[in-house]
Amino acid sequence: MSAPASIPDTALVLAMSLDGKIADVQRGAARFSSLADLAHLEQRVAAVDGVLFGGGTLRAYGTALPVRNPHLLAQRQQRGQPPQPLQLVWSPSGQLDPHSRFFQQPIPRGLITTAMGARSWDSEQFQRIWVMPESRTHPWDWPWLLAQLKQEGVQTLALLGGGTLAAELLRCRCVHAIYITVCPLLLGGFTAPTPVDGPGFLAAVAPRLQLLSWRAVADEVFLHYRVLPPYG
Ligand SMILES: NC(=O)c1ccc[n+]([C@@H]2O[C@H](COP(=O)([O-])OP(=O)(O)OC[C@H]3O[C@@H](n4cnc5c(N)ncnc54)[C@H](OP(=O)(O)O)[C@@H]3O)[C@@H](O)[C@H]2O)c1
To answer: Which domains does the chain have, with CATH numbers?
Structure first.
């Protein structure tokens, strides 16, 4: 099966320790990358119509990354995009903290959830709520959901983690590119999150990548890969 054509162009964007962890064993916010990486992340966010992250990531950070750089804001305006991309959270349970700073940020918010998960939320907190039909949640039907997003104008999507959500989209062949910043530290830990968690892939059928570009800035390495067909 190849990637569905009717879904947004989707890039996974992550910062990782040299030993392949995206946070430490406490699974809190990952704040180990440099200012150069934060600027790179803001660029990726500024480039897209929508940003998607998991509930675990929102619980860890409590905020989303808005576009602040005036140059990037001007570029969005020139492209006819709204100032901020839609910030989409995936949370089947809908159990998110309504007091987190995320809900005070001046950004458009969306929730992808189940009928049960949608119950506690209204249009003040999330301007758009996508409820996945129960029949499409075992396993979660991402191609169907992403096609809905594309129909509503999300042509490009930055997938900002965490490892559980990234594994979900990779399982469904819905990731086209990967930006990974390799950061100069070692985090270790059996239970620290990695870029792709979930049940894993057997090597014979694992997603394969093609390196498109790399650059080193001080002690960090910025990698850009394309996910190869027939997988990507
Ligand atoms: N370094 C980086 O670039 C980077 C980027 C993003 C995140 N992170 C780190 O990644 C960590 C969060 O990643 P994560 O993988 O825990 O969460 P996640 O991928 O952000 O979100 C996972 C979501 O999956 C849902 N889910 C459904 N089935 C699940 C299952 N069997 N197990 C777990 N979740 C399931 C949960 O929904 P419910 O809401 O219903 O529970 C949860 O909200 C944090 O430590 C964060 O700092 C690092």
So the answer is: 9-227 (3.40.430.10)
